[in-house]
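Run log // design_07
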């Protein structure tokens, strides 16, 4: 693993007074470790940038203004949510005889065979958590994917790093080559939509028609029940016939 030397100052500004350091271009931080005394420190922002603006993991040789030297790693850095500038950092002291847990980046090497055949390379894990002695901390975990074909993948259990234990789930996928997604052209999709059967609409219309017929039939039956029976027309009495005038005169005689 690569080692980088950083100069820092033991700071006297504690608590809220540490904010004044940021106006001067410095960033407050803390150095701590197992069985070691906590040391409040500060360093220039430009000196801190190589530690967090990189994908690699570095072992830090910390040089303080009191002449002491400490071997450590960057455990955490807090950034301002608006300016994205560092506002605080944590340095974890290492013991050469004690294993340390740390995350290291995963780097992919080569062009997969599956990509040449039209597939797409997907990287699921970009960092993995490992445990090892400080001297065995890797800069990164490198994966050679040149022989990876379509529908093939590399899992945690396939990775071997000497003197390093990977703490992730052994069945987790790190990288995979997947087949390409083929999208239909708009013209083809429109043509298929035009040819598609409209059976649901026919069923809906048939259902409405049946409902209409039933409603008409029910209405007719109800109308027949409510309508009174028609009366047969009454026969008018035939008018009484009057005898002729000649006959009346004969009877008087």
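design_07 sequence
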């Amino acid at each position: 693993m690569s080692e980088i030397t950083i100069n820092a100052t033991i700071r006297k500004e504690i608590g809220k007074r540490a904010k004044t350091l940021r106006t001067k271009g410095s960033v407050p931080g803390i150095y701590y470790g197992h069985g070691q005394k906590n040391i409040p420190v500060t360093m220039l922002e430009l000196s801190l940038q190589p530690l967090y603006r990189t994908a690699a993991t570095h072992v830090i040789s910390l040089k303080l203004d009191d002449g002491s030297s400490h071997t450590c790693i960057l455990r955490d850095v807090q950034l301002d949510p608006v300016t994205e500038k560092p506002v605080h950092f944590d340095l974890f002291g290492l013991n050469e005889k004690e294993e340390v847990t740390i995350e290291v980046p995963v780097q992919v090497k080569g062009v997969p065979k599956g990509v040449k055949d039209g597939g797409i390379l997907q990287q699921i894990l970009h960092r993995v958590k490992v445990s090892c002695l400080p001297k065995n901390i890797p800069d990164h975990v490198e994966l050679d994917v040149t022989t990876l074909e379509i529908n093939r993948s590399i899992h945690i259990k396939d990775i071997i790093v000497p003197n390093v234990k990977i703490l992730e789930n052994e069945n987790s996928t790190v990288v995979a080559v997947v087949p390409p997604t083929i999208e239909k052209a708009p013209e083809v999709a429109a043509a298929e939509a035009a040819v598609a059967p409209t059976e649901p609409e026919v069923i809906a219309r048939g259902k409405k028609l049946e409902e209409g017929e039933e409603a008409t039939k029910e209405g007719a039956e109800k109308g027949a029940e409510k309508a009174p029976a028609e009366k047969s027309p009454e026969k008018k009495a035939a008018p009484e016939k009057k005898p002729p005038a000649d006959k009346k005169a004969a009877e008087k005689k």
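The chain has six helices and 13 strands.
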